[in-house]
Amino acid sequence: MTSEDNLDETRYVSFVIAEGGPKRFDHVKRSKGMGPVHQAVARFPSGRMVTFLTFDHAGHGWGLDPEAEICRSDRAVRFSSEPVPY
Question: What angle do CA 4, 30, 61 make, to 5 degrees?
Answer without folding.
Answer: 20
